[in-house]
Every structure is written in C-alpha cells, then in structure tokens.
Amino acid sequence: MRDWNAAAVLQPYPKTSPAFALLTIWARGIANGRLHRAAAVADDLKSYDAALADLQKSPYADMMPRFQLYRTEIVAWQQYAEGQNDAAVATMRKAADEQDKLGQAEVDLPAREMLGDMLMELNRPKEALVEYKVALMLSPNRLNGLYGAGRAAEALGMKKEAGEYYAAMLKNTGDGAHSSRPSLAHAKAFAAGKTDLAVVRGDVGDLAVR
C-alpha cells in the first residue's frame, strides 16, 4: 500500500519467532528510509541485526541468506535517507543481483522493483524503466511494477508505452472499480488524458498516504 508512515511504526508481535520479527523490522526500515529518517533506519538496522543473531541460533538458520539479502535492502534505504544516492543505488543493485541468483520467495517484494522505485525518487526515469522491465519479466503483472514502469515511461514522454502499462494495471484490477489507490486513479486519469507530468516525477504513487 506504500503507507510508509504506518509501516514505520510497526512492532514485532511479542514472543514471535525471529523470522517474523525480522520481516516486521525490515518493513519498518524500508519505510523509515523512504521517509528520509536516517537515524530511525540506523536504529532499525541495530534491531534487525539483533533479530538476525537470534535467527542464526534458531532451527531456521538455513534462512540466513534470504534475511541477509533483506538486510542489504535496509542498508540501501539507509544510504538513501542519508543522501548517499550513488551508494544507495549500488547497494540496492547488489541486493537485486543477489535476489536474481537466490530466487524470490513466494511473497517477496522484488529488490529490482525497489531499485526502480529508488531511481524514480532520484528523478532518473530512464534507468528506472530498465529495472522495472527486468522486474516485470521476473514477476509479471505486479501492480507496483506496472505502475513504476508506467510512471517512468510517462516521465520520459513515452506516452504509448506508458499507456500500455497503465492499461495492464486497469485490466488486472477490474478497471480499479473497487479500489481508491492513487496509482489506479492516476492510470485512469492518464487513459482519459487528464494527467499532469509534474506529478509523475518522484514517488507519487501514493501522495495520499505519504
């Protein structure tokens, strides 16, 4: 839902397993990074490392490679929050390359899609579109991937290609008839010729919840 403010205050359920605690802290770290809260992400990373140490001692230690990958994603958003933009992109690209080799878990948020999001945040739509296209090959029809690709294409003035991505979003969601997501509203507005290029730049996906 891209509701970063809500995600930033998530807390692991008391006495939950290390794996589930890690997922909650991971979501919190990404949210704080996207909100440019560098100190908060640093705290999240400390909490993550403590939970990672617990995981190492648990019966689920074989999951360490995947959770190490998630840690890399948190670091990338920490660097982004600190204004280390080139380092952030390089770190997220490393996470994406690792995930391509490791394979995605059933409900993983693709690191390469996050790389596209980060590049859009940095007003680098040409590079972002490349990453979204790769992400969509690996995870076809993901709503955020389609929207990201549409936004990037739109920012580049590629109206036909943007329209194709937005059309796929609407087709997959019953024309967005039962959703108030800003991303679907934008796709419908584009189809109706009522969009403003200014709102495409950066992470507009969800201005209503930022």
Radius of gyration: 17 Å
Helical region count? Answer: 10
How are helices and strands ordered from N to C?
HHHHHHHHHH
Runs in which pLDDT lies below 50 for 5 or more consecutive residues are: 197-210
Count of individual beta strands: 0
Q: What's the helical proportion of residues?
A: 55-70%
Write the layout of secondary structure elements.
Blueprint: H1 4-7, H2 18-34, H3 38-56, H4 64-81, H5 85-102, H6 111-121, H7 125-138, H8 143-155, H9 159-172, H10 182-191
Describe this structure in words.
With 210 residues, the protein is an all-alpha fold. Helix content is 66%, strand content 0%. α6 packs parallel to α8 (143-155). The longest helix has 19 residues, at 38-56. The protein is globular. The model is unreliable at 197-210 (pLDDT under 50).
Describe the structure concisely:
The protein has 210 residues and is an all-alpha fold. The protein has helices at 4-7, 18-34, 38-56, 64-81, 85-102, 111-121, 125-138, 143-155, 159-172, 182-191.
Main attributes of the structure:
210 residues, single chain, disordered C terminus, mainly alpha
